[in-house]
Specification:
Elements: E1 22-24, E2 47-53, H1 58-73, H2 80-98, E3 102-109, E4 112-119, H3 145-152, E5 155-160, E6 165-172, E7 202-207, E8 212-215, H4 217-223, H5 227-230, E9 239-240, H6 251-256, E10 259-267, E11 273-284, E12 290-298, H7 313-320, H8 327-332, H9 340-354, E13 359-365, E14 371-378, H10 382-385, E15 389-391, E16 406-408, E17 428-436, E18 439-448, H11 456-500, H12 505-516, E19 523-528, E20 537-543, H13 549-557, E21 571-572, H14 575-591, H15 601-613, E22 618-625, E23 628-636, H16 645-680, E24 694-700, E25 711-717, E26 723-730, H17 734-752, H18 758-770, E27 779-788, E28 794-801, E29 807-809, E30 815-817, E31 836-840, E32 845-849, H19 851-854, E33 857-858, E34 861-862, H20 864-872, H21 880-894, E35 903-909
Antiparallel strand pairs: 1-5, 2-3, 3-4, 4-6, 5-6, 7-8, 7-12, 9-10, 10-11, 11-12, 13-14, 13-18, 14-15, 16-17, 17-18, 19-20, 19-23, 21-22, 22-23, 24-35, 25-26, 26-27, 27-28, 28-31, 29-30, 29-32, 32-35, 33-34
């Protein structure tokens, strides 16, 4: 893969060559309304990256990674997910459906990115001028690339030449207002926001590499680090960025922008995440060196830094004419529809100020409108409540539904009327619904610590403001949901690819955990179930902070596992948070001397940090495959945090894919274990120790996962110091050949120990093979009996039934055949076999191989009998083990490809009187 950057390059003229048509977006072409667009010469290419991908399945994942890395490197994180999805589909069409190399070109243009994917399919029919390119059904496996381009890209098109087809698309970057100066009107003191104590503003300076160069006193107070502890460290080491797929800008990209505002978290010295609101400004010194100045406050004090909505000229004119300018109307205005979090936070802050409340909150309805999800609050412990869900219909009575305005004079008289405010000290509250076209989209509330603060008049004012903002909130919510779904699609595509790429159970478990942490959750645990009678077993635990993994694993091991309920969807599991809370409480009491003494002080901190890590919401998703629960995927958040509904839906999609991958890995492991166990039963348990003779065997079965094939060997004692030896080759490879292998090996041992001669043994084995009928296969076999002699030699009686002839190596390097060829087994009923006597003198080597050795090929070349003899001549003076190893190395070096046939090497050597 090659990439290159060409700043300032003008794009080439995209007009087609040789008079062939170019079909692109812009003007209709035929009934399918194809679109046309050309790369304007006025557009400037600021960067370029190109790569080619071979026509193999793994190229699709490589292309996705290439596009993702390229666009993130260019600071185009906002459009990465759409680009990855489109590239994945187009490259799949090229390398899988067309079966050609795919060329991917990424161009960074003014205000956007253009990506081109070309294939080289030579037999494609080129469309006629003006012809339409027909859109296929979205349910078909191929042909969805153009439909996705039409749905996601701003502009796209297809160019044809005699040698290739090129599909391109352009994605525009969202515009960001840079350097806008805004101001708000003077307000009465009672409308100003409250600050709970001194507001600390951390000032941090970051150099061009992302490392901290300055850290002020307020930063030390907020986060607990001294300046010398963090100077020189990257800010990304401290930042806990929200990892919701498809939303937000990465911290590295945010530091490169000239101006940026937003929320993220900073890990303090105790390991807790402090939610902050940040304002970044990129500057340069007199030497031209760029750096970024970051101002950070606690998230609930964001009004100190947050840029307010600009007041329009009409608002100013209305104010000067004495017309009503409701502060809620002035401050909310019409924010950018894609800034949902900022819009919601400004809404609750202005609602609180408008009614002079102590707190305010805003909840958004889920898709089915049965629950409300907390999305923003002020004056409340927002971290504890964020993404918490409450039912729309809270109970009977006049104010039991969020669909109607409600005023509560004193919550102590109606406990549980507003679950969100339980334990917060708030007494009076007014809530109103947010509705769009009569459909409930959310709920807005303002609360005060004093009772009886609100009446129907305040409810009407708040309802009027809610009606003004409801449409903007719904529009921003739908925009966020669309971005999340696009990111989820990209996430699931990559997850499916990774899960499909392995059949190893442990690796599948690790992939499941790594895909969920930190993208979907702060920590996760995977429980597996071996069979219906087994209890769930804790198989894998992962946390985004590796130092907490052991603590979480220890905590979960003390809790009964969740019930393996096959009901789809996520269900809340409260046991981890409750156990962690109790453990932290006991530890704190011991540290204060109120209970049993704490023996190890460092253990107190570990327990508290672990409790904080698992103290939030924990959910369990069943892993169901083939109508059976095979495990549970447990996802957790740190203290007081909740999951948003969209993340749970994405986790449910992932759990279905992960369950099938895990079950496939289980089935593969079980079948492999069974196969290997059966195959090992076909091999001799071990080689016997023969006095006066060295014996060595090397065996290689062809095919992945095979331990035994059609080749086999055996050496076994017969009687009176005699040993039988055999090496054979059944026609074919794999399990069918291995079945005949088992028959031959066990029959040889049984018949030889009956005292039969070599020819008689092979005659009966031949009959047994023929009796197999359709399952029979012909067999080449070298069988012999060996008797070590008192003078140091060894006498062999050999029958070579259609097998490659054994070779005898003498100490002087002479190589000769040690037997004559005879008919193979499994073909004829009557065989005329005879045995030959061979004497191995001290220093002699007898080499027996199967045809997988002699027929080893590299192109048109074959090792052959002569090549084997040449290698054997170099083995004088070597032990039997060294001879077998040298022969195998020579075979492997002869050809680089994996062997297509089984191979067996049997070497026997009679040690010389004076071995070298």
């Amino acid at each position: 893969m090659t990439t290159g950057l060409i700043p300032g390059e003008q794009p080439p003229d995209p007009q087609p060559t040789s008079g062939l048509p170019s079909q692109t977006r812009g003007e209709p072409v035929g009934p399918a309304a194809q679109h046309v667009e050309s790369r304007s010469r006025s557009s400037v290419i600021t960067a370029r990256a190109a790569a080619s991908f071979e026509p193999v399945g793994r190229s699709v994942a490589s292309a996705r990674s290439f596009v993702r890395d390229t666009l993130q490197g260019w600071g185009c994180a906002d459009i990465v997910d759409d680009a990855v999805v489109l590239t994945s589909e187009l490259v799949t069409n090229a390398v899988v459906h067309a079966g050609t190399t795919a060329d991917v070109l990424c161009l960074r243009l003014d205000g956007g990115v253009r990506i081109e994917v070309a294939d080289h399919y030579p037999e494609r029919e080129v469309p006629l001028q003006g012809a339409a390119v027909t859109m296929t059904s979205p349910d078909r496996e191929g042909g969805r690339g153009l439909q996705l381009c039409a749905a996601l890209a701003g502009r796209w098109g297809v160019d044809y030449t005699p040698t290739h087809k090129q599909v391109w698309f352009r994605l525009d970057l969202p515009e960001r207002a840079v350097g806008t100066r805004t101001a708000g009107p003077s307000l009465p003191a009672d409308l100003l926001p409250l600050a709970d104590g001194r507001v600390r503003v951390a000032v941090i300076q970051i150099d061009r590499t992302g490392s901290i160069t300055a850290w002020n006193d307020d930063a030390e107070e907020l986060f607990g680090y001294q300046g010398e502890q963090v100077t020189g460290k990257p800010l990304t080491d401290l930042a806990a960025w929200p990892h919701t797929p498809g939303t937000g800008t990465g911290i590295a990209e945010a530091l490169q922008l000239s101006r940026w505002e937003g929320s993220y978290g900073i890990r303090d010295a105790d390991g807790r995440v402090v939610p902050v609101y940040a304002s970044h400004l990129r500057v340069r010194d007199t030497a031209g060196e760029p750096s970024t100045v970051c101002l950070l406050v606690r998230d609930h004090e964001r009004a100190v830094l947050q840029t307010p909505t600009r007041i329009t000229a009409s608002d100013t004119a209305a104010s000067s004419e004495g017309k009503s300018t409701d502060p809620f109307e002035v401050f909310i205005g019409s924010p950018a529809p894609d800034d949902l979090d900022g819009l919601l936070q400004r809404t609750v802050e202005r609602a609180r100020d408008m009614l002079d409340g102590d707190s305010a909150f805003l909840l958004l309805a889920t898709d089915d409108e049965t629950e409300l999800e907390v999305r923003a609050s002020t004056g409340l412990p927002s971290a504890r409540q964020r993404f918490a869900r409450v039912p729309v219909e809270a109970g009977p009575g006049r104010y039991g539904s969020a669909r109607m305005p409600a005023v509560h004079d004193d919550l102590t008289a109606v406990p549980g009327a507003v679950p969100l405010l339980h334990g917060t000290g708030m007494r009076s509250v007014v809530t109103v619904p947010l509705k769009v076209e009569g459909r409930l989209t959310g709920s807005l509330g303002v609360a005060a610590e004093a009772p009886g603060r609100y009446s129907n008049e305040e409810a009407l004012r708040l309802q009027f403001a809610a009606d003004r903002i409801a449409l903007a909130v719904e529009s921003a919510r739908l925009g966020e949901l669309e971005r999340l779904r696009r990111g989820s699609l990209s996430f699931l595509v990559e997850a499916s690819d990774l899960l499909a790429g392995t059949l190893d159970r442990d690796q599948t478990l690790a992939l499941m955990a790594q895909m969920t942490v930190p993208t979907l959750a702060t920590w996760c645990a995977v429980y597996t179930i071996a069979d219906q009678a087994s209890e769930p077993y804790l198989s894998y635990v992962l946390h985004e902070d590796e130092e907490l993994i052991d603590g979480i694993k220890s905590l979960l091991s003390k809790i009964p596992p969740p019930d393996p309920v096959p009901t789809p969807g996520a269900r809340v599991w409260s046991a981890p948070a409750e156990t962690a809370h109790q453990a932290a409480l006991r530890t704190s009491m011991r540290s204060l001397g109120l209970g049993e003494p704490a023996t190890v002080s460092s253990g107190i901190g570990t327990t508290l940090v672990t409790a904080s890590a698992v103290g939030g919401e924990t959910v369990v998703l069943p892993l169901v495959a083939r109508n059976r629960v095979i495990g549970m995927l447990t996802l957790g958040k740190p203290t007081d945090e909740h999951f948003r509904q969209e993340i749970l839906e994405l986790a449910e999609d992932l759990s279905r894919r992960a369950a099938l991958a895990l079950d496939n890995a289980r089935l593969y492991s079980e079948r492999t274990a069974i196969s290997q166990s059966l195959q090992r039963s076909l091999l001799p348990p071990e080689l016997p120790q023969i006095k006066g003779v060295e014996v060595e065997v090397i065996y290689r079965a062809a095919g992945e996962g095979n331990e035994v094939g059609g080749d086999f060997y055996d050496i076994f004692p017969i009687h009176d110091g005699a040993y039988g030896f055999a090496i054979g080759d059944v026609c074919g490879t794999g399990p069918n050949a291995a079945a005949v292998t088992g028959l031959a090996r066990h029959a040889l041992r049984l018949l030889a120990r009956e005292g039969l001669s070599g020819p008689a043994v092979l005659q009966r084995l031949n009959s047994a093979i023929l009796d197999e009928g359709a399952r029979s296969r012909f067999l080449t076999l070298l069988y012999g009996e060996m008797r070590p002699q008192e003078d140091g030699s060894a006498e062999l009686k050999v029958v070579c039934a259609g097998h490659p002839l054994p070779l005898r190596l003498r100490p002087d390097g002479t190589v000769e055949a040690a037997a004559e060829p005879q008919p193979l087994l499994g073909v004829l009923e009557d065989l005329d076999l005879y045995e030959q006597t061979v004497t191995l003198d001290p220093g002699d080597v007898l080499l027996c191989v199967t045809d997988g050795v002699t027929e080893r090929r590299e192109g048109n070349r074959m090792l052959g009998d002569d090549g084997l003899a040449d290698v054997l001549t170099t083995c004088t003076g070597l032990t039997a083990g060294a001879v077998a190893a040298r022969i195998m190395r020579a075979v492997e070096r002869f050809a680089s490809d994996a062997p297509s046939d089984d191979m067996a090497i049997l070497a026997m050597r009679v040690p010389g009187l004076h071995p070298a």
